[in-house]
Amino acid sequence: MKTSRNKPRCGFDCRLNWRALASILGILVFASVSQAAKIGYLTETSWQEQAIEFWTLQQPSVRMAVLGTVLIGLCCGILGSFLVVRKLSLLGDTLSHAVLPGVAAGFLWNASKDPWVIFIGATAAGILGVALVGWIKSTTHLKEDSAMGMVLAGFYGLGITMTTMIQNMAMGNKSGLDKFFFGQASAFNGGDIQLLGIISAITILVLLFFYKEFLTISFDAGFAKGLGMPAQTLHYALMALLAFAVVVSLQAVGVVLVSALLITPAAAAFLLTDRMHWMLLLAALFGMLAGVLGAFISYLSNDLPTGPFIVLGATFIFLLAIYLGPRHGILPKMLRRRRQRKRIALENTLKAVFHLCEHGHFERRVFELKELAQERNTNLKSVEREVENLIKAHMAKVEEKDSHLEMSGQARFRLTSSGWLRACEIVRNHRLWELYLTNAAHYQVDHVHDDAEEIEHLLGEQLVKRLEDRLQNPITDPHGRLIPSREQVTV
Question: Concatenated DSSP letters for 324-351?
Answer without folding.
Answer: H-TTT-HHHHHHHHHHHHHHHHHHHHHH
